[in-house]
Design brief:
The structure is a single chain. The protein is α/β, with parallel strands linked by helices. The protein has one domain. Helices cover 19% and strands 35% of the residues. It is built from four helices and 13 strands. The strands form two sheets. Strands 1, 2, 3, 4, 5, 6, 7, 8, 11, 12 and 13 form an eleven-stranded mixed beta sheet that branches. Strand 1 and strand 2 form a beta hairpin. It starts with a helix and ends with a strand. About 17% of the residues have low confidence. Keywords: Signal. InterPro entries: ECPIP. It holds the Pfam family ECPIP.
Length: 219
């Protein structure tokens, strides 16, 4: 015997709510950060946005204007995309950031200097330079740790500084070149300041003397 119409309608509504909730829960938003007209926009996006399409990002993502101080030594557990136009903007948005999955999109034609940015815990990097010259997106797998090799959790310091076992240095001049994205790593590195005295970052970066680090240079 078929259930009454009211019960059937209630069942259909309940099932619809459950399916919608399950679909929404399965979606993971990604973070998009860009600078536009001297403002910084921090966006949460449920779908990929075409690189450097600021209007579309403001329309389809949930975006807020943030102060530069809010992004200092930030931490991102999921995917982060940064749109930038010059070296100072990229340094402001990325330097000393803790991020595992990162995409960088150059949205201008400026030539970038040979300067290094320090990134903590980076596993995967994608780079898009289409605004400067037509070229396919490049991808680089830097570290692929599974459950058998858990990444050590960052150590937090009183002033908000953070460190981890994996430190990547990104050469911003790579956006000027037509060559493929490359990287090399030096493992079990202790006393970093002695090995890399020319990197001024270590004068302020909190390095622990009783640890060994994996240092990666991306160029």
């Amino acid at each position: 015997m078929a259930p009454p119409l009211g019960q059937s309608l209630l069942l259909a509504i309940t099932l619809g709510i459950f399916v919608l909730h399950s679909f929404s829960s399965g979606q993971k938003n990604s973070t998009l950060i860009f600078t536009k007209e001297n403002t910084i926009r921090n966006c949460s996006c449920s779908a990929d946005i075409q690189d450097c399409d600021y209007s579309l990002a403001n329309l389809r993502c949930s975006c807020n204007t943030v102060l530069p101080l809010a992004l200092e030594q930030a931490s991102y557990s999921d995917h982060l995309t940064i749109w930038f136009t010059d070296a100072s903007a990229l340094g402001l948005l990325l330097n000393f950031t803790l991020v595992q999955d990162l995409k960088l999109s150059l949205c201008g034609t400026n030539t970038l200097p040979t300067e290094y940015l320090a990134i903590c815990g980076l596993k995967r990097l994608r780079v898009n330079t289409e605004a400067r010259r037509p070229s396919p997106e490049q991808s680089l797998l830097i570290y692929n740790g599974g459950e058998s090799e858990p990444r050590q959790k960052p150590v937090w310091f009183r002033r908000g500084w953070q460190t981890c076992m994996y430190i990547s240095f990104l050469d911003m001049a790579l956006f000027n070149r037509k060559s493929s994205l490359k990287a090399y790593s030096i493992e079990d590195t202790a006393h970093i300041t002695n090995h890399f005295p020319y990197l001024s970052y270590f004068e302020t970066f909190p390095i622990l003397s009783n640890r060994s680090y994996v240092i990666t240079f991306i160029y």
